[in-house]
Structures are given as structure tokens and as C-alpha cells.
Known about the structure:
Layout: E1 4-5, E2 23-25, H1 28-31, E3 59-62, E4 71-74, E5 82-88, E6 91-94, E7 108-115, E8 124-130, E9 142-146, E10 152-154, H2 156-159, E11 167-173, E12 182-187, H3 200-203, E13 213-217, E14 223-225, H4 227-230, E15 237-244, E16 253-259, E17 265-269, E18 275-277, H5 279-282, E19 286-287, E20 293-296, E21 305-308, E22 311-312, H6 316-322, H7 328-336, E23 342-343, E24 347-351, E25 357-359, H8 361-364, E26 370-378, E27 387-392, H9 401-412, H10 419-425, E28 434-440, E29 443-446, E30 459-465, E31 474-479, E32 485-489, E33 496-503, E34 515-520, E35 523-528, E36 532-533, E37 537-538, E38 543-548, E39 553-559, E40 564-571, E41 575-580, E42 587-588, E43 599-601, E44 637-640, E45 649-652, E46 661-665, E47 671-673, E48 686-693, E49 702-708, E50 722-726, E51 732-734, E52 745-752, E53 761-768, E54 780-785, E55 788-791, H11 793-796, E56 805-812, E57 821-829, E58 832-837, E59 840-843, E60 855-856, E61 859-863, E62 872-876, E63 892-897, E64 906-913, E65 916-919, H12 923-929, H13 933-936, H14 940-944, H15 948-952, ...
Parallel strand pairs: 1-41, 19-23, 33-41
Antiparallel strand pairs: 2-32, 3-4, 4-5, 5-6, 7-8, 8-9, 9-10, 11-12, 12-13, 13-14, 15-16, 16-17, 17-18, 20-21, 21-24, 22-26, 24-25, 26-27, 27-28, 28-29, 30-31, 31-32, 33-38, 34-35, 34-39, 36-37, 39-40, 40-42, 43-75, 44-45, 45-46, 46-47, 48-49, 49-50, 50-51, 52-53, 53-54, 54-55, 56-57, 57-58, ...
Amino acid sequence: MLFFSCAEKDSKExxxxxxxxxxxxxxxxKTGIDFTNSITENQIQNYFNYPYLYNGGGVAVGxxxxxxxxxxxxxxxxxxDQLYLNLGNLSFKKIxxxxxxxxxxxxxxxxxxxWDANNDGLLDIYVSRSGKSEDASLRKNLLYINNGNxxxxxxxxxxxxxxxxxxxxxxxxxxxxxxxxxxxVVNHREDFQQNSYFDFENDQKYxxxxxxxxxxxxxxxxxxxxxxxxxxxxxxxxxxxxxxxxxxxxWDDIYVAHDxxxxxxxxxxxxxxxxxxxxxxxxxxxxxxxxGSDMADINNDNLPDLMVLDMVSEDHLxxxxxxxxxxxxxxxxxxxxxxxxxxxxxTLQLSNGIGTYSEIAQLAGVAKTDWSWAPLLADFDNxxWNxxxxxxxxxxxxxxxxxxxxxxxxxxxxxxxxxDVATEMIPASVISNYMFKNTGHLGFKNVTQDWGLNEPINxxxxxxADFDNxxxxxxxxxxxxxxxxVFENKISKTENYxxxxxxxxxxxxxxxxxxxxxxxxxxxQSKRLFPARGFQSSVEYRIHFGLGQKSIVDSIVVEWPDxxxxxxxxxxxxxxxxxxxETLPKTKTKKKESKSKMFREVTEDIGIDFKHEENEFNDFAxxxxxxxxxxxxxxxxxxxxxxxxxxxxxxAGGAHKQSGVLYLQKEDGTFYKSKSQPWxxxxxxxxxxxxxxxxxxxxxxxxxxxxxxxxxxxxNPNLQDRLYINDGKGNFKKDLQALPEMFTSGLSVTxxxxxxxxxxxxxxxxxxxxxxxxxxxxxxxxxxxxxxFTDVTDLLAPSLLHPGLVSDxxxxxxxxxxxxxxxxxxxxxxxxxxxxDQGFFMDATSKFNLDSTSGWWSKIAVVDWDKDGDDxxxxxxxxxxxxxxxxxxxxxHIYANDFDGNGSFDIxxxxxxxxxxxxxxxxxxxxxxxxxILDKFPTYDAFSKAKIEDILGVNGINNAYHKEVTIFxxxxxxxxxxSFTQTKLPVEAQFSQLNGMVIHDFNDDTYPDVLLVGNNxxxxxxxxxxxxxxxxxxxxxxxxxxxxxxLQKTGLTLSENVKSISRLNYFSNKNSFRxxxxxxxxxxxxxxxx
Length: 1090
């Protein structure tokens, strides 16, 4: 026995010193494992009859004879399953036949779980079955009860667990908290002919064979199917599940990953034996072809995070050959029907600790791992951070687009295609698995090659275990068509560890569902004990913690499934411990008390009922290759005391055909709509940024409103900006003579006295030429002359006539010479500076070495961050959580021209790989913009090898409008009078596009802090929308750096498409303030500082 009590150290423990880096595949001659999951296709069992033919088998790990060594069970699709007993020293003995394990002829085995079904302290084995067969008896799942002498008896029928559905895997869960383990069985649909199109009515037709099943433990070694009663019936292609307390209420919930168009499901435990589907309450989007899944804490904040795999390749050639079609109309139809936003990408859902998740796979570097099956989150290098292993590959490239075209052509020509001929036509590839090292700070590094796992091998199920008890996690992989392999972990050299085995109380002796937290200094790691993880597999029952160089463990806290907790202190390192619920002191687990938050929502309490109603407009109808919509920039909110009563009021702008609204504040802090709403007559125009300022010098606040949007062509009078004059009592009237003609689609306005004459002048940023993206529109420098505004751009600032696609601008004295300069940012623009030289504005971008800062900038906030007396700047960008990741060495390019000479204006995005410029978009969507591409590149393979000059032509490129971007990170730009220092904002501020900022000293230390909001839901459907930002509050550390406040502390939860934020003071509490959030196509949200 290799596990001892917490007071005992393992005497058989291996010396903790290694010299080899990486994993080593242990040869068959040593392991004795000769299992190969081979399949032979025939007229019945072939891919075209059963598209899950290549999904492969699973593997389960567990100590079946309680000798302290984890044993292995492999499932075979057509071949016999095999059970191997661990003899120590990475040597195994096949005991399948003597153990009583056998396989029914023509049955198809998929997932496997080791668990204690009858609560006797011995691990039993549950095997899931599926396949093409219509004979339900061949699909009945198997339960091998452990007899205690390395022998098993198949007993699924007597236990009521002989599920005859199309099963993928089973998951133990105590959903009713009665102390024993119930069982979730994930099943899939068999009508694969309907997996390529959207059929809402059919998708709602539940059937016994295809629905997931929840079996309740009756406590007498029998189980009852309570799926319908529990509310988890589905009609979907289920490939994996995760059991976890998603909403942190102490009751375990169920997340199920679904293949094809069926959305993933989150079943929240109602604590009464039923569940409610609530995916959209917690997550903003999901993978499309969801495969395997796992959940563990990736950033050591004591909160579990969710990883779900898809099947998108990072390789340019493979991605262009096998890119699935994403039809815009179908995509939004599915959204309208409640299928959610699904994207062909791996998803990493980071828990925010407040019942919401931010999806950050692209920021973390784990978004694309090809045709992937199993993710396992575990600490493989013992540094204290959970890494990520991914099994990868498929026997045939069944989604190859050229194959589809070829088969369709043959069928249309009336040529019958035999299954075996069609099978031979499918290309085949063998690719390696992936290993990612957790680098901390929400990042992962691909170490597949560094850690010796780069051998091409198509793998499916995988489990981890410390097979040789040397203190690190090894791997066992079930691969397709080649012998399965045990990989010995030889990464760790001097890193420390603690390995735990839990002994729970009957009827859950293995303590499934327990949570273990390890505390060392100020750091905490936490893990849940759930064996079924990844894909069709289950892992070892030990809980393993890497410690890095830490030599002391302050305490380990076990939250047992029975609602009690145990704490063990001063734990020695580098040992295997047995923690026994029966013998350890226990106290009732306390429910974590909700602490006071910095903000609380008061939207419903203060009389504001404004809802922004975005007009329907398909930006992609004519500009198919737009990177994102240009029609969803609002709403903006302007704040000011318009009626002179000492209370701040606000104006919220409307969308096209929606009037903006002015709300007046009452003394009790509530609001009512003003009687003066003259902008109702201008409701056809789309309101964008607005500004309260004294335009006519009479001492009250007038209102400037920018008109914009993508619906009007350049020159349309509805694009004219507007100025509304205040009579001093809050009554407004439009001044038709105050502004020059400005028939430009704008976005931003900023005010400042640039000529020093005592009034407020304006800069208005032009945002786009509708239908001509990314060509730069007019922008305007407007001089205030006795309340009338003159366009002096050409005279005083010709370089500001067409600065770019302007998103924001500020008047600011960046050179500290006593007059106001201008900073301008936008899409495909650098951070642009225009220096005021005796009233004339000169482009000073190069002078301050900012030429190489081109990005998709969105917002500026002026702040003296370092308190040195000059203006510094917080600059919002699209962030790092996207698929592009441009850099100075590898920019993202855009080209615009009529490339095919058909009279339409074409745009084209390109990325750099080495010395090559390659297309971002695929053949299908590219040809929709430029139909000649189909003739030029008759196959997807030909297109995948094409460079930009091949697609657009050298002359087309040379004559094109061209821009590039090199940075998508949001920044702090610190001013040093003659130069600037660029510092990336914390990673939490890189989750999405930043659209709004509030500067305030949130912790009362006299230093300015910043609160950030944003998101951008307007991406085209092949690009994951930018929706991960919930809000970020960054504290100033007083030395130019940052400290991020958690959302659990701020309480500022915003899952919406937030376009603006404004601070508003209110009379009833002069020591507090409110934040007004302008959310696109949503109600205004209001949060009050406590």
C-alpha cells in the first residue's frame, strides 16, 4: 500500500531528481501493453453510415485491487476491450480474460468510467456503447462489478444501468446530495443526415435512445431513470460533459458539450431533484463542434474554469482546405431560435467568480488545436499551475472541402459512389497531440515539441495518473490504429509536490465530488475529485498538486461531499497522503458569505426606462469581407446640469429611427423625462457621441450630437451633425445655422479652447465612408466664433482632414507648452498626435515615435497616472483575445480596391507568415466578394496555397488602398514631455475591445485609478465576437503599474455590448456617484458606488 495517513510519509517514494526533460513513450516491451484500437470498415460500419466511426476509444485509470498502483482499461470500437494490472515500475499485465471482461460480437464500445457503483470500496467499470447497429441489445451499456479478486461480474441490467442509447460516456454525480452517487450518461443522436442543416422543430423531438440520461441511485444497488423528471432531456449529439458547481451554490450542475449545430447545454441544479437549462445566463458563446471538455482552475483564484474543444486547425493549409461553411443568415437564425452564438474554435471559459464566465481561448493561446478530442487540465510540470494536454487527429479528413465538391459532382452527374470508393477518396493525415504549459497570467505556451509529444499520432481518449508513484503525472493514450502508449513524465527536476488520496464515508467511499484546497503563503490551489474527464475517459482518483519550489504547505482543506470540512496543517512536501474522512477532525462547511461590493445595480430603482433599439442593417450584404460591423457604435450618454438646479442630468442617444432622450434628475436621485425633446424630429439620424458644453457663451449647457452609422451613403443630409441650444432652463432648440455642412458619418466629438479665446471649440472625428471601408472620411476642426462654428480644418490643420477611421479624440497639452494639442485614434491608425504650433496643427506622430502603434483603437482617457504634472493616456484597443495577434514583425494588412473590375469596392485582409502574405478569409467567402476566385482557384487546396498577390494580382495590390496594424493591446501611454512610454494594461483589460473609461480614485490613496468597459458584438460570423469583458477596475500602484480588482469585489457585472460609460453625481449622496452604461440594443444600465 503506497498511501499513508497525513502523519506518515511514503517509504517507497521515488527519489525526486530527474535529468530528462519531457515525456518518454515507454516501449511495449517494457509496459506489456499491446492494445490497438483498429477498425475495419465494411458496408454497414463505415463513415458514411456512421460519422462517429473515427471517434475512437476511451481509457480509464484506477486502482482496481487497492495496491496503490493505478491500473488501466482500454475500450475498443470493434476490437476487444483490455484490462491491464499495474505491476509497478511501469510494467503491466493483461488480465482481461481472467477478469471476466468480454465483448459482445458486433458491439461498439466508446467511453469507460471507473467508479464504485455498489459502495464497497472497490472500483467497478462502466462501459458505454454506441455504433450503427439498430439492435438495441448491442448498445446496452455494461457495468462490471469488482468482486475483489481482480475478477468482475457484468451487472448493468440488475443495477438498472443497461442504457441502450447511443452512449458516449458516463459521469458520477450526487445531484440530490443524499450521499450516494447517481450517474449521468451522455448520449448522441443517430440521425446524422440532419447534422448539416438547421431544423428547429426536429431538434426539439426528444427520444429515449438519444437523450442524455440521469440515473438516480436508489440506495439498494439499483438506479432509476429520472431524466424527464429532472429536466435534462435533449435531442443532440453529446460528446462529453463536466460536473461542477457552476453557480457556486453548493450543488453540482451539469455542462454537456454538443457536436454540430446543437448548442452546448448548462443544466443548473435547482436543489429539488430538477435542473434548469441556463447556458446563456453564464456564457456568452460556445464552440460549434464541441468535443471533449474539462474543468479546473487555470489561474489559481480558487475558481474552476472550463475548456471545450472544437476542430479548427492552426495550420494555414489545413484550415483553408477544411474550413466549414458559416452562412450568415443561418447563423443569426440559430441565434434567434435560442441556439446561441457558436463558433468553430476551442473555448476557454474563465470564471469571474460572480456567476459569469469570460471566454479567453484566443488570448490564452489555446484556441486552435486541429481535430481535437480530449482536453486534460492538470499540473504536468509540478510548477503549481494547471497545464493543458489535448489529444488530436482523425483517421480521415472527412471535412475536406474538395472531397465534398468531388462527391457532389459525381452524384449530380448520376454516378453512384460506392462506400468503399468514397472512403478511399477521403484524404488522410496524421498529426501530433498538443501540450500547453501554463505560463501564469492566463497564458499558455505550446511545448508539444519541447516536452517530447510531437510524434504524429491520431489519438482519442487519454487519462493521467502517477503510474510509477514518483510524484508527477504520466499519460496513457488510446490511439486509432496504432498501439496505445504510456508516456512517462520526465519533465520535473527539482519541483515539489503533494499527492492525495481521499477516503470518504459510505456510500461514497472514494469521496467523489470532494474539493481540496492547498494553501501555501498567499497562494491557493484547488481541485475537485471527479474522475470522468476529457473525452470517453476517466483519470486516477488521486488529487495531485505541484508546488514548484515551495517547500512548505501551510494547510490543506478538504470539503467532503457530506457537507463537512477537514483542515490539515504543516504538511510535508514530496509525499503521498491518505486523508480519511472518518478519522480527521471535521467541521460543518460554511457557506461563503457575500461580501460588500464596490458597486450595486440600481437601474430598476431610479426611473430610467430607456432601451437602445438598434436598427436592422446587414453591413456584410455589400461588404462581405468586413472584419466587423460599422453600424453598431451606440449608444452614447452625455452628462450635465442642463436646468441649473445643481443636479446632473443626462442625454442618451438613439439609433436610426429612434429618438434620443433627455432625463432630468430629481432631488431624491431618481429621474424623469424632460418635456423638451426637440431631437425627436431628427430620429431618422443615428445619434453617436454627444457633448454638453456652452456653445453660445450664455452660461448654460448646450448639446452637440454627432450623426453617423452605416445606413446612409456619404452626402446624405441625415449625416449632418446637430447643435441644440439651451434656454437656461433645460429647454432646447435646434440651431440650423450654427454648423457647417457636415454630411459625413461621424462617431466622436471633443471640446477644447484651442485658440485661447475663452470659448469651446470642437474636433469631430469622421468614422467611415459607408460602403467604402476602410477609406478615411472627412474629420472637422471647428472654431467657435460667437456661437457659430467654422470649419477651419483645411486652414489650420490640413493633416486632420482625413486622419483615418476616427474612433476617439481629445484636446490635450501633450507637449506641456500651454496650448491644446489633439490626440486622435481609430481603426487602422497609429496613436496620432497633432501639435498646436501658434494655432496651426502639425502631425507630430513621428516626432514622438508613435508611427508603429497602428491598431484598432477605440478610446482615450486623459489622466496624470504618475502624478508628475503632465497628461498621460489610457488607450483602448480591440485587445489580445482575438484570432489576429498582429505585431511589428507580423502585421495584419487590409487592401481595398475594385480588384475584379466589376464595379464593386472590395476589401481583403491578409496576415503575414514568414515572408508570405496569406489570406485571412477562406475561399467560399472570398469568392462571394470576388466571384472570379472560383475560376482562378478551382479547388480549396489550390486556394490554401495561394498568396495575396496570387489572389489580388500584383497590379491590384500596387493600386490598392493599403493599411496595416501592428498592435491590438490596450495601453497606458506615459508622457515624458518629449517622448512616451508604452505599457500594456493588465491581461484582464485585454479580454475585449475597450469602449468606455472612468478615471477615479477608487481606493482613496490620492492616486487616479481607472474603470474600463467595452465589447464588440459586430464581428463577422467566422470571427468569434468580442464579448469577454465584464468590466475591469485597475488600481494605480503608485509606481506606474497596476493592480486589478476582482469582479467579486467591484460587483460591476456587464455581459452586454457596452459602448459607453459616463459618471453622474447625484444629490442624495454627495460622497458617491453613479455609472451610466450605454449598451447596444439594450437598456441603459446604472450602477451606484457604495
